[in-house]
Design brief:
The protein is flat, with a radius of gyration of 36 Å. The chain has 3 domains: 77 residues; 159 residues, no CATH class; 174 residues, no CATH class. The two termini are 25 Å apart. Helix 1 packs antiparallel against helix 15 and helix 12 packs parallel to helix 14. The strands form 4 sheets. It has a 7-stranded mixed beta sheet, sandwiched between helices. Strands 9-7-12-15-14 form a 5-stranded mixed beta sheet, covered by helices on one side. A 3-stranded mixed beta sheet has the order 10-11-13, with no helix packed on it. It is an alpha/beta fold. InterPro entries: PtdIno-glycan_biosynth_class_S (IPR019540). Belongs to the PIGS family. This is GPI transamidase component PIG-S.
Length: 562
């Protein structure tokens, strides 16, 4: 009896020891070694970004030239005036515009610059005196008698960040400076909407985050036409020669790019990086048979058939697999001799003056007729030199549209200077930078919040330190971009927004986030049960036996006491 009791007690101690080792050491060790590593993320800061509250601040300087204010009014001109304008886009997005206007009188050098024979010369002279910082504007109020502006023009917008505003006769009725400023304020607000950001442009930049109202058709069309914001773009110029036996085409694409395209891209350097290549494709057809118009003795392409032109041609263009940047395609097509001349018609059956069309977020195609080079004694193939000035003028206009350089309609009484040799005015660059900054901030905020929601819903995704670092960098850059927008520092805001969108996309598309997506909980149970069940069953049975014996002994002791 004593030996049996000792063996039974030894077995119980052994079972308890094994169970203790498994519970105290084995289970924590297994849990620790098999848990999913998840680095710390700034969840509270990410949740704040889900509710996007943006403030855009623009600095406006109003300079009164001689003869626009009386000496008595000049003494009472306020130094600064701040106006706020708030818009609620949706329940998670709100916009606030702050305009800080500073008033002063023109100095001697500015008065001399305003005596130039033309508004363009005055704009250049004022620019040489002082260059306005990015995102700011200077409005010069000139007297009604000034000869800088034509009679039917009240506002001149030049190539820089400067505007000339005529002090009209209706402004003379104001006997106080307050009345004068009240007359000027609506006109200055119109200048701001043309030369700086407008609510239409900003809401269009938020099209990837909010739903645009159907009534704003113009902003919807502009947002759908232009490429989405990207750190870089690939530009490809292609010459399509479907009939090399009839004509041998020569185009100085390198010189044309340096003359017409590169100045624009140099000015757009703060927005994105650009790379350019070119190619010549022989026996490349449009894929659509043009129709012969006997009234014009020419072949035509209707607007309805233009949509079917791109796919057959795109198969011949190739792709740059080494880059993930969007590609802007510009095609110059010289029709074969059997289908020349070839003209593009609009929906009203009228010839398109440029003989070209563009496809949103893809590129543009221009038809270049060469039938006039075929003389009665021509020897085939005919050598033809392409007029690159004509071609690049069309491609430059298409490039502006595809990159989102929007030329807003000027109000009545406004005169906007034509594009300079760079193809882009300073204030047009500012408008684009405002839109790109807001678009980058909205896109990066959406990406980060979506990633945080994904990681919160799927707990078995590994969050490496690299991903946590990218997320933290994106959040920090987003906060800095929002702060710089609020301070009106447009250049820094754009730079931080680009850093935010790069870091957020690197984190969102990191390959390590996909490693454990293929192991849901039911598969884990299928793996662990055959491993742990054979070991756990004897331990559990031993523990149940020990508990049963302890209860039996307790009952026996109670019976003896009774």
């Amino acid at each position: 009896m004593a030996t049996t009791e000792v063996e039974r007690r030894r077995g119980q101690l052994a079972s308890l020891s094994i169970a203790a080792v498994v519970i105290i050491v084995g289970v924590p060790l297994w849990w620790r070694t098999t848990e999913t590593y998840r680095a710390w993320l700034p969840v509270s800061q990410i949740n704040e970004l889900a509710n996007l509250q943006l403030q855009l601040s623009a600095d406006v300087e109003v300079v009164f030239a001689r003869g626009t204010v009386t000496p008595e009014q000049q003494k009472k001109v306020p130094l600064t005036k701040t106006q706020d304008e708030e818009h609620t886009v949706d329940e998670d997005t709100a916009l606030r515009y702050r305009y800080e206007t500073k008033y002063r009188t023109a100095n001697i050098m500015e008065e001399d610059a305003l005596k130039q024979p033309s508004a363009a010369d005055a704009d250049l002279s004022l620019h040489t005196l002082s260059e306005s910082p990015c995102g700011s504007l200077v409005v010069y109020v000139i007297p009604e008698s000034s000869s800088l502006l034509p009679e039917d023009v009240d506002v001149y917008i030049g190539q820089r960040r400067t505007a000339l505003l005529r002090n009209g006769a209706q402004m003379k009725v104001g006997r106080t400076i307050e009345q004068l400023l009240a007359h000027l304020e609506p006109r200055i607000r119109q200048v701001l909407k043309v030369m700086s950001f407008s609510h239409t442009d900003i809401t269009a930049a938020l099209s990837g985050r909010v739903r645009l109202s159907p009534g704003n058709k113009e902003s919807i069309a502009d947002s759908m036409r232009a490429f989405k914001s990207s750190p870089g773009y690939e530009i490809t110029f292609s010459l399509l020669n479907p009939d090399p036996k009839s004509h041998r085409l020569h185009w100085d694409i390198e010189g044309a790019v340096q003359t017409y395209i590169q100045p624009l891209l140099t000015k757009l350097a703060p927005v994105a990086n650009f790379s350019i290549d070119s190619q010549t494709l022989y026996y490349a057809m449009l894929g659509v048979n043009p129709r012969f118009d006997s009234s014009r003795n020419a072949y035509t392409l209707n607007s309805d058939s233009l949509a079917h032109v791109i796919n057959p041609v795109e198969a011949r263009l190739g792709s740059n697999a080494a880059s993930s940047n969007p590609v802007l395609n510009f095609l110059l097509y010289a029709p074969d001799a059997q289908h020349s001349p070839l003209y593009i018609q609009d929906r009203q059956k009228q010839k398109v003056p440029s003989n070209a069309f563009h496809s949103p977020r893809w590129g543009g195609i221009m038809v270049y007729n060469v039938n006039s080079f075929y003389g009665p004694e021509a020897v085939f193939p005919v050598d033809i030199n392409i007029d690159m000035a004509k071609v690049m003028g069309v491609f430059l206009a298409q490039l502006r549209l595809l990159l989102g350089v929007q030329s807003s309609t000027a109000p009545p009484g406004f005169l906007v200077a034509p594009c300079s040799s760079t193809g882009l005015a300073d204030w047009e660059l500012d408008r684009l930078m405002w839109s790109r900054s807001v678009e980058n901030v909205a896109t990066a905020a959406t990406t980060i919040t979506s990633l945080a929601q994904l990681l919160d819903q799927i707990g078995n995704i590994v969050i490496n330190d690299n991903i946590a670092e990218q997320v933290s960098s994106a959040v920090t850059s987003l906060q800095l971009a929002v702060a710089e927008l609020e301070a009106g520092n447009l250049g820094f805001a754009l730079q931080y927004s680009k850093e935010a969108i790069l870091a957020s996309e690197r984190a969102f598309f990191d390959p390590s986030l996909l490693h454990l997506l293929y192991f849901p909980d039911d598969q884990k149970f299928a793996i662990y049960i055959p491993l742990f069940l054979p070991m756990c069953v004897p331990i559990l049975l031993s523990l149940l036996k020990i508990i049963s014996d302890a209860r039996q002994r307790r009952k026996e002791r109670q019976a003896k006491k009774e």
